[in-house]
Design goal:
The complex is a heterotrimer of chains A (about 290), B (about 300) and C (about 280). By secondary structure, chain B is an all-alpha fold. Chain B has 12 helices and 2 strands, in the order H-H-E-E-H-H-H-H-H-H-H-H-H-H. Chain B has 2 domains: about 1-60; about 70-305, MetI-like fold (Orthogonal Bundle). Helices cover about 80% and strands about 0% of the residues of chain B. In chain B, strands 1-2 form a two-stranded antiparallel sheet. Chain C is mostly helical and about 280 residues long. A two-stranded antiparallel sheet of chain C has the order 1-2. Classes of the chains: A alpha/beta (about 290), B mainly alpha (about 300), C mainly alpha (about 280).
């Protein structure tokens, strides 16, 4: 039902010719977009190899959780997926990453275009110092959307999808800093959704929030997964178990060697019957 | 849904070329502005040198730097900088005697002993002092200090190195005070705690631990105050009497380097020898302040590194 | 006296002496303030502020000098703000960590220490003579712009560095280019700091005499300049010229001029500071 609502709202935001084509393509296209394939991915900070040989498949329209002890490179791996590592300088990424079959690490892939397709939500809520409306409209405006009606629809749609709309609809001109921490984080999710990405990367999105806000974020994620692929880094294993379809466990066994992907499979299997001893130790709390 | 993303991407792709072009142009512009500071600083040095070249050629830099008489307009013109350099040093010396004890002392008090309210008030007051233009300080000196110096020391004229120096000292207090206070403020609180916990009083902590730890910053503050005083123009021009003779004491009229340039540049023949000599004075002044500021910079830089963890 | 008593006594003495130094500073500043106000307030009238000087400034007003100073400051802002802000952006957002950047920083701090009269010489050689702008508001403003540049650059860089890195990443992750991120997020967020700091720098420039001595200033001019290539009267130069070259200068009017100058600088600076703290309350990281 939520999906239907989304489709409808999205099409109202688009020019009318989209309407006619929609019925034919939607289903097929929806299945094919937003899948990541990683092969032999490694990351180095300067000369320091921190991640090595990660192979991974992220299915479209699913929630994938990255878990592991802190410092195991989960966030770094996440940032490979929208090439945000480019912005940190001194970070080199090797191997091959494709989004729907297209190589995203090549020289001819513009990271700016990639990031329009792969959104990110950060650890701490980081709304821009402007109104709620302007925050959400920021991405679409970047893409050159100027028409008020179009922006209005996108803003409302995105805020609905992040389950914030009902709380703020009376005053979208309010400064984003006046929202509570949990609301700010949902605003950041709405902001990322407004560019209509196929994938949403979340880097411990609830770690700075109270339990109630965390619950709301988790509900939001559950509803979103019917329309976008979600890759989430989390410290909280209960959270991973609750919200994800697949779980990937990463581990850096000592500071001298890089982190590896230890095991990745269906969440249920990881938490009940993992293949690897180390995974079992981690989820039963023996280290990390 | 896929279509909507496609349209979106089409739109974004269409903009790629112009976006990249903008980025390149902006980058070039930003880099150019960033490097401009070096260009201007170099240009200042080059212009002083090229305009001073005639006097360096005809009189000689050594002759000018060691010459003891400055008679730029007589038939047998003499361009000795020594009276001017000494004049600047005399005035600056007096200024330091005023500004260093008061500035550093007040900074220590504000940083180590004063309450928050007093500190806030003092900060705005110091900002006000720094904002008063030098010509206004000069005016106050003319109205108050010149008569005071004349009657107190029973001189024929109140226009002396002392008069200019006192006003200059007051003018450099904000520089000395605020930079010293920054240096003291940068000393980690844990150092003070450690000393107090050993049974030292606040004052013992201050002179045994805090001030030594901030000493390089305080030194830089004094250097910058010195640089500011040497380069000050209007107040000294209005207060020191501008007699271009070799000074022997602070109760005499002196003429500083800055005052000479300001007073004479308006009346010289453009591109003439006198004009050129004034640029050479400017060059000497520039070199002196540059060296002082560079030294202060390096000291401050080292101090910043020290407390960074 | 035992050791502890001695230490307590020393503390008392030190505190008194140091406190005295602080009090000297406060009293001096207060004296300066009170002196300027008490000597100058009688001259202030609408007529004084708007009419032109008569009899070499012994009578009449300072209208053209106020106007000239405003001209100079506006032109200075026109040149120094865009360049200074972009240079600050360079240092905070683009500059690599290398020797070149270090020397740029060094150049900026050193520019701030170059004596104002040396800027005057530079302006004379560069703008008045080489660029042939003659002695004019334009030459004076360009000279003052060089002088205020380090202030604008420094405050811009500091303000930009206050903006959390996360905000830049959020914008980049939405598919914005670096420049759009700076223009739409980073610069607006740091505007209070940049504007206020720049205004303080420009207010100081308004009080400078030495840089405009041979680049812009004229002793008497009956009206405002009609173009940037005209010479201008200016408040600080007016005070200097009256005191040093007009016999029997009018104390009343010159102190009035000083009051106008100091009050103008102070009011603008205080207003800028207040505005910044109001803005800061809105944006708290």
């Amino acid at each position: 039902m939520v999906n239907a609502l989304n489709v409808e709202l999205r099409t109202t935001a688009m020019p009318s010719l989209v309407m006619t084509e929609r019925e034919n393509d939607t289903v097929v296209a929806a299945d094919a977009s937003g899948s990541f394939t990683l092969s032999e991915v490694s990351v180095a900070y300067g000369r320091d190899l921190v991640i090595e040989g990660v192979d991974m498949y992220v299915a479209p329209r699913s929630v994938t959780a990255l878990i592991g002890p802190s410092g195991c490179g989960k966030s770094t791996l996440l940032r490979c997926l929208n090439r945000m590592n480019d912005e940190l300088g001194n970070v080199k990424v090797g191997g091959r990453i494709t989004l729907d079959g297209q190589d995203i690490m090549g020289r001819d892939t513009d990271p700016v275009e990639l990031r329009m397709r792969v959104g990110q939500v950060f650890q701490r809520p980081n709304p821009f110092p402007m109104s709620i409306y302007d925050n959400v409209a920021y991405g679409p405006r970047t893409q050159g959307i100027r028409k008020h009606s179009e922006l209005d629809d996108l803003v409302e749609d995105s805020l609905r999808r992040s389950a914030l709309y009902e709380e703020v609809k009376k005053n979208l001109k309010k400064h984003a800093f006046e929202l509570s921490g949990g609301q700010q984080q949902r605003l950041c999710i709405a902001r990322a959704l407004a560019t209509m990405p196929e994938v949403l990367l979340m880097d411990e999105p609830a770690s700075a929030l109270d339990p109630i806000s965390t619950q709301q974020i988790e509900d939001t994620i559950a509803e979103l997964k019917s329309s976008v692929t979600i890759v989430i880094v989390t410290h909280n294993m209960q959270q991973a178990a609750r919200i994800s379809d697949q779980t990937a466990f990463m581990l850096r066994e000592s500071m001298e060697e890089p982190a590896h992907l230890i095991e990745m499979s269906e969440t249920k299997k990881i938490f009940t019957n993992p293949d690897d001893k180390r995974t079992e130790s981690y989820i039963t709390g023996r280290f990390g | 849904m896929a279509i909507s993303t496609d349209t979106k991407r089409g739109r974004a792709l269409g903009r790629t070329a112009s976006r990249r072009a903008t980025e390149v142009v902006v980058r070039a512009l930003v880099f150019a502005c960033g490097w401009l500071a070096i260009v201007i600083l170099a240009a200042i040095a080059v212009f002083l040198l090229t305009n001073g070249l005639r006097s360096i050629d005809e009189v000689g830099l050594g002759t000018m730097l060691t010459g003891t008489s400055w008679y730029p307009t007589s038939n047998n013109a003499q361009f000795g900088f020594l009276p001017l350099i000494l004049g600047s040093l005399f005035v600056t010396g007096v200024a330091l005697v005023v500004s260093v004890p008061v500035g550093v002392g007040a900074a220590v008090y504000l940083s180590e002993f004063a309450g928050r309210g007093f500190k806030e008030v003092a900060k705005s007051v110091v900002e006000f002092m720094a904002a008063v233009p030098s010509v206004v300080y000069g005016l106050i000196g003319v109205a108050v200090l010149i008569p005071w110096v004349r009657t107190t020391f029973q001189l024929d004229s109140g226009m002396t190195a002392l008069t200019g120096g006192i006003v200059l000292g007051v003018m450099s207090i904000p520089t000395v005070l605020s930079i010293s206070e920054d240096a003291l403020h940068a000393v980690p609180e844990s150092l003070r705690q450690a000393s107090l916990a050993l049974g030292n009083t606040r004052w013992q902590t201050t002179y045994k631990v805090v001030v030594p730890a901030a000493s390089s910053g305080i030194f830089a503050a004094v250097m910058l105050g010195l640089g500011r005083a040497i380069g000050e123009t209007m107040a000294v021009l209005m207060l020191t009497g501008n007699a271009a003779v070799m000074p022997t004491g602070v109760f005499e009229s002196v003429r500083t380097m800055t005052g000479t340039i300001a007073a004479e540049m308006g009346e010289v023949v453009r591109k003439g020898l006198h004009y050129s000599a004034l640029f050479s004075v400017g060059l000497v002044l520039f070199a002196m302040t540059f060296a002082i500021n560079l030294a202060a910079d390096l000291v401050l830089e080292r101090q910043r590194k020290r407390w960074r963890r | 006296m035992n050791r502890v008593q001695r230490a307590r006594f020393a503390e008392k003495v030190a505190k008194t002496v140091l406190g005295l130094m602080a009090v000297i500073v406060l009293v001096t500043a207060a004296a300066v303030f009170i002196y300027i106000v008490s000597k100058g307030y009688r001259a202030i009238s609408w007529e004084f502020l708007t009419t032109r000087p008569l009899k070499l400034g012994r009578e009449g007003g300072i209208g053209p000098a106020i106007g000239g100073t405003l001209w100079l400051v506006s032109l200075t802002a026109f040149f120094t703000l865009p360049i200074g802000i972009l240079a600050g952006v360079y240092l905070s957002e683009y500059a690599p960590r290398n020797m070149l950047t270090r020397s740029i920083r060094l150049a900026i701090t050193n520019m701030a220490g170059v004596p104002s009269i040396v800027y005057g010489l530079f302006g004379l050689a560069m703008f008045v003579m080489l660029a042939n702008f003659k002695v004019s508001a334009l030459s004076g403003a360009l000279t003052l712009a060089c002088m205020t540049l380090p202030v604008v650059i420094t405050v811009t860089e500091e303000a930009l560095r206050q903006v959390p890195q996360d905000l830049r990443h959020a914008s980049l992750a939405l598919g914005s280019t670096k420049w759009r991120t700076i223009r739409k997020v980073v610069l607006p967020a740091s505007m209070p700091g940049i504007v206020t700091g720049s205004i303080l720098g420009l207010a100081r420039a308004a009080g400078e005499t030495a840089p405009i001595l041979f680049t812009a200033a004229v002793f008497m001019s009956p009206q405002l300049p009609r173009s940037p290539l005209d010479r201008v009267m200016a408040l600080p130069y007016h005070i200097y010229a009256e005191v040093t070259s007009v016999p029997n200068w009018s104390e009343n009017l010159i102190w009035g001029t000083a009051l106008v100058l100091v009050a103008g600088i102070s009011i603008v600076s205080v207003a800028a500071g207040v505005w910044r703290s109001i803005q800061r309350r809105k944006i708290r990281w």
